Amino acid sequence: MKIKKSSVGRYLMGMVLCLGATVCGAQAADTANYDTAWTFVYDGGKTTSGKVIPDKFREIKILPSGDAICVGETVDSNQADNVLLIKLSTTGQTLQKRLYTLTTGIGGSSLLLAKNGDFIVGGYKYFAPFLLRLDPAFNKKFSTWYYDSTLHKSHLARSAAINAMVELKDGRILAIAGDAFPDNDGYKLNNYAALLEYDSLGKVKPHTDWLNTTGYELAGWSLAQAQGGGYMFGGKQSVFKIDTNNVLRTQTIYSFTLPGVGSELNNVSRVHQLRDGSVMVARAIL
Predict the structure, then answer these.
(1) pLDDT tens for residues 166-175?
(2) Cα–Cα distance measured from residue 127 to residue 199, given in angstroms and rounded to the nearest whole number
């Protein structure tokens, strides 16, 4: 089974990227209006059979210089998945482009800017988590595939892509993995999330995962540091919190009720803890 590309979500369809600029005018001091400063369109062309290549950006990060790093995926002429990495200038011009390919197919679903300037790409290879570390020039330092290639089976209970990452003080990487964000390509979502920890050289430590937790619907889509130590992660209708030893401490369900309608299904796509300790979640009503 292979994790396929989804058609909507955090990433932008058709590889169209628009950067917004704030427009100031006779507005209240706390009001900001946004307009499009520039637009970038990427077109990977067609396969040898004449089919349009489904290019997608899945995550975008802005560098201190103002340049943008975009990660996603495209396919080659033989329809094998490739990680696509593009660096854009502050005016939307292509500065660098690199494809990373494997015969089994790989995709990029998340991006982390390391403290030393490296780029860390999280994604999937076949149906298991894949991590790729690059230097600032996009040269490969190492890659890690969390899969038992000797016995040809996954270490995880479900197929999963790395959807979010954080870098720890000592250079370790903490990653959350689960269904392809945001809709698992239209297939039924699993009640599953896996927490992976890598050392600075890409060696993965034993994982922790949550499968079919009674009373909760969870997906491994978002990961954020929590106040007082530990981390929050979530997706679908739930946010879980763990301590620094990866021990589960709290579980929260986020429901949504519309007046006159009642309870509605919603998916938690992002989670963040504010300075005052309150938790902010971004949700999409289905």
Answers:
(1) 999 889 999 9
(2) 22
